[in-house]
Amino acid sequence: MPSDTDIDAGKLTQRLAIEQDVGTSLDATGQHVEDWQAWGSPATRAAAVRQLSGREVERAAMLYAEATHLITLRYVSGITPVKMRGKLGTRVFNFGAVNNVNEANIKLEILASERLA
Question: Which of 21, 52, 71, 99 shows its CA 20 to 30 Å from the CA of 82?
């Protein structure tokens, strides 16, 4: 019987670039200026990115109200919802909640919202 931490490697078919906002400057109106840079080594990781269904969105809203997608990848230390995002080609996903499934350091599940251009 599969456990929550099992990863079906065949489903990690997308290459997700992990980025971190390292911007420290403010614009003329005092707003933070984003400066996104590649994070980690490697900065691009095998992942599964899928849109949440209606019922899943309702459940996910308890953790992250804006969740539209679930991103699954192998565990890597240091990924947080603070000033981090993922890029899949030209699509951008803001991280909302990051779950180290069962605290086993095997699989991460990230609730994210797709950022519209």
Answer: 52
